[in-house]
Amino acid sequence: MMQNYSDSTIAFQSYDLTEVRHGYTDRTLKIDISNNTFEIKPVSNVMKEKFIGGKGFDLYLLWHAITGNTKWDNPENEICIASGPLGGTPIYPGSGKSIVTTISPLTGSVIDSNVGGYFGPYLKFAGFDALEIQGKAEEEVAIIIDGFEGTLRTVKPPKELSEEAYDITDYYHDMIGNGDPRNVSVVCSGTAAKHTLFGCLNFSWYDPARKAVRIKQAGRGGIGTVFSDKRIKALVVKCPRVTVGLNDPADKETLMRVGRAHSTEIREVDLKQNEMSTIGTTHLVTIMDDYDLLPTNNFKFGSHKDASKMGGEVFRKRFNPGFDGCWIGCAVSCAHCVKDFELTTGPKKGKKVLVDGPEYETIVGCGSNCGVFDADHVIEMNYWCDTYGLDTISLGTAIAFAMECYENGLITKDHTGGLELNFGNKEMALELVHQMARGEGFGLIVGKGVRVMNEIFHKEYKADRDFMNDIGMEAKGLEFSQYIAKESLAQQGGYGLALKGPQHDEAWLIFLDMVHNYMPAFEEKAEALHWFPMFRTWFGLCGLCKLPWNDVQPADNRDTPEPAKVMKHVKWYSEYFTAVTGRPIDPDGMIKMSEVVYNFQRIFNLRMGHGRRADDRIPFRAMGPVTEEEYLSREERYDTQIKELIGLNPDKMSLNEKMNSLRDYREDRYEKLIDAVYKRRGWTNDGVPTIEKVKDLGIDFDDVIALISKWQ
User: What's the mean pLDDT in 46-60?
Assistant: First the structure.
């Protein structure tokens, strides 16, 4: 019987339900909300063989929907969401991811974000490998995909429905769930997304143990801002109960064997390693602090005496007990929450709420990087960012930049509307967040991100552009995620060469380089900047989380020939892919598979006016000390490097001379790393994939060849 939705229907279409075949439905759904139409499209052989799923499908669909002149707020820009052929497998850990792709308000180019929650798998089980949303609604709409009834609806949500994320998700889980909210997943943003350039998307699932709707975030690059600009209130999918057979694996026996083996290993070793099932990623706070890698005061310092106040032991006491996975059956179970947290600010002041997280990036971005070491402050920032629809990474890095500009007199209270933005002023940091939600005050300027703030401060306030370029922690327009890269050349390359901007999900080499010392030689770093981005890309193609791969490692991993790669798990993943799809693949084939999509995304950046060597620059603070204070805080280290690496005598040099010599050395070393990585990837010295490379990868389409020929 057809559901009786209370929202008023704008457009309606029935569709034939279809079963998944070896991980694919072999069709996608396009919704144009400008004219309220639905189009079901077949997945071509080229799309399936070359682009695999997930981010690959997103990029393929977006490429054919827009032009090189499309801006983020043009109606033709799309939001594409896909899982992947392995997505939705409840027996294998980390198999519930969605990948969201669009043109970013921050970078002007392609952005993608990998997110938990149930939407991507539910979308597939409702009948579609990928979804593309194009157009711009005249008034606010919600989109409902019902995989029980086989119906598609665009509806007008109730006027009284709040703009806050938890209210929206609660409403649609209740209304569409029709008594069983577990079968529903909702995508929404929040009220601050329409006032900023780094709005996030919230992806939901229902937690039956706590009888509450939970959310995870597709945070990076302002995807929530695009969602809000299109006037989408919510995107809702409903699907049947998930089972192992629903994804129709080609070899169920092998799938069960490798899935159980990986899950069993995680349960055996996690509590002896990082305890992610108990404290999530919060364990990283004290580890990063121990190795001088914890961003503090806008990435100026790497450690602080109060870091432990926001570490894993603190959150062990604050997290609500229980094993929490953002997908069914995930043994890592790292999606923790704080229950009955009493808010101290905002429109819900005094109310007790459930807070999803925080995770490491939020703790550091909204905590130590802003000079704050208060776990409760971070939890409150986490809640408001989620419910308002704000990326905590960009937010924290942007506020930290504004704070350093304020402390250096580049901006004053006259510019901030009276806010005293000193490091450590947690009350003012929260006020900026609430201003973003209200669409007023200096929060609107901070909400534009570091690159635009730099322009405003220089043009309107006459602030020192060179200094801001050095301390403004953004590249390609995207704010840095939360790791100090000064002493890790590998991570400098990981940030600078990342296709979408300085996000660690492409090449998180800081731990391998600085903690484990797995790649001491220059050549090893260059090789790592080829292999690791390719393998990490593979997770985004298949609908997987990377945490089970290398955040929980086999007990004997350090004794293997390539411990950084955790090859035991890589081999399991190759068996997993073959078991589901029936397509034989080995670890080398997985890298080649990813190279296709990775190079295509670099070419997509070129199409949008980016993607060359000049775009791979990073601010000097990511490489070394910008200020005298920074140098002096590590003077012995830097003096030793000048003597041993550069061959100069620091005792006979002024502080300014020492800083300049260190800068010249580190900038030169970074350029040489770029040369080596470009060569390894088969790109020109300007960072453009060669014609020979694209032919080898089989993506020598006419429009691709015509585009890259300009730079050969």
Answer: 97
Write the pLDDT tens digit of every residue in 440-481: 999 999 999 999 999 999 999 999 999 999 999 999 999 999
Query: In terms of domains, do 398 and 466 share one?
Result: yes
Residues 293 and 394 in one domain: yes
H or E element, residue 434: helix 426-438
Give every CB contact of residue 70 below 8 A, 6+ residues apart in sequence.
76, 77, 103, 608
pLDDT at residue 240, rounded to an integer: 85
Provide the number of structural domains found in the chain.
2
Segment 111-115 mean pLDDT: 96
What is the mean pLDDT of the segment spanning 325-338?
93
One-letter amino acid for residue 661 of the chain:
S
Burial of 408: CB neighbours in 10 Å, binned 0-12, 13-18, 19+: middle
Are 212 and 295 contained in the same domain?
no
Give me the phi and psi of 8, to 5 degrees please: -80, 130
**673 in any annotated domain:** no
Rounded CA-CA distance 569/555 in Å is 12
Residue 664 has pLDDT above 50, yes or no: yes
What distance, in Å, lies between the first and last C-alpha atoms of the chain? 60
Would you say 62 and 130 are in contact if contact means Cβ atoms under 8 Å apart? no
Clarify whether residues 141 and 187 are in a common domain.
yes
Handedness of CA 483, 591, 596, 86 (dihedral sign): negative
Domain residues for the domain of 24 are 8-242
Q: Residue 7 pLDDT > 80, yes or no? A: no
Neighbours of 340 (CB within 10 A): 9
pLDDT in tens, 614-623: 999 999 999 9
Residue 601 is assigned to a structural domain of this protein: no
**Taking the CB of residue 506, how many other CB atoms lie within 10 A of it?**
23
DSSP of 69-137: T--TTSTT-EEEEE--TTTT-TTSTT---EEEEEE-TTTSSEEEEEE-SSHHHHHHHTT-SEEEEES--
What CATH number does residue 355 fall under?
Answer: 1.10.569.10
Contacts of 240 (CB under 8 A, 6+ apart): 125, 147, 148, 183, 246
The single residue listed with the structure tokens 């969201």 is 100
In a domain, 284, yes or no: yes
Cβ-Cβ contacts under 8 Å for 285 (sequence gap 6 or more)? 294, 307, 308, 310, 311, 312, 360, 363, 364, 368
Cβ proximity of 331 and 302 under 8 Å: no
> What CA–CA distance (Å, rounded) separates 215 from 283?
21
Question: How far apart are the C-alpha atoms of 478 and 463, rounded to whole Å?
Answer: 21
- Binning pLDDT at 50, 70 and 90, where does residue 641 land? very high
Q: What's phi and psi for 471, nearest 5 deg? A: -105, -10
User: Residue 322 pLDDT more than 90?
Assistant: no
- Of 316, 325, 318, nearest to 283 by C-alpha is 316
Residue 392 has pLDDT above 80, yes or no: yes
Q: Are residues 90 and 142 in the same domain?
A: yes
Q: What is the average pLDDT across 288-308?
A: 97
- Residue 616 exposure: Cα atoms within 13 Å on the Cβ side: 25
Helix (H, G, I), strand (E, B) or coil at 201: strand
0.85 cut: is pTM over it?
yes
pLDDT at 4: 46
pLDDT at 2: 35
Which conformational region is residue 603 in: left (phi greater than 0), alpha (psi within -120 to 50 degrees), or beta?
A: alpha
Q: Which of 427, 455, 479 is the last residue of a domain?
A: 479
Give helix 426-438 / helix 392-407 axis angle, nearest 10°. 120
Half-sphere exposure of 687 (CA within 13 A, CB side): 23
Give the contacts of 184 (CB within 8 A, at least 6 positions apart): 122, 172, 173, 176, 177, 204, 206, 236, 237, 238
Q: What is the pLDDT of residue 1?
A: 28
> Are the C-beta atoms of residues 421 and 398 closer than 8 Å to each other?
no
- For residues 150-162, average pLDDT: 95
Q: What is the predicted pLDDT for the residue at 23?
A: 98
Domain for residue 377, yes or no?
A: yes
